[in-house]
Amino acid sequence: MKKSFFGLMAVGSLLMSGHTSSAQSNSKTEVEKVVQGYFKALNASDGAKVVSFFTADGVLLPSAAPTAEGTEQLKGNYQYVFDNYTFDLKVSVGTVTVQGNHAFVRSTSKGTLGIKANGQKIEAEFRELFVLQKVKGSWKIATYMYNQSK
After folding, report:
1. What is the pTM for the complete model shown?
2. Please, are residues 78 and 71 in contact by the beta-carbon 8 Å criterion?
3. Which of 42, 90, 91, 140 has its CA at 20 to 30 Å from residue 111's CA atom?
């Protein structure tokens, strides 16, 4: 009786760990889609869509610019950005770590940055760090920080 009980417990543990691994894999895929969607909206200069990827109290920590906190400041930041620049960046998602209702993503992006004032396009390369939070069943960007890698 003891052997069958412990055998059943072992099988149950394996099944539960498989379920957890599958759920975590699904979460990683969902998180990666958020990052990909963010870059698609960025490349389209769609400020409303970009901001929709953030939590209501989301934080943007741009390189060499003031921190933007909350929806209104994010809207203002991206309005300024899209009034002055265009992007054609391809993102490569590196590591994705999911821990409960939070996820951490390291990525890089490469492409061109267009300067609207003079029509110049320059090669650009960035490193990014995203912290995402699950809000009402959906992953949202809680904090996003980037800098140029060159």
Report:
1. 0.84
2. no
3. 140
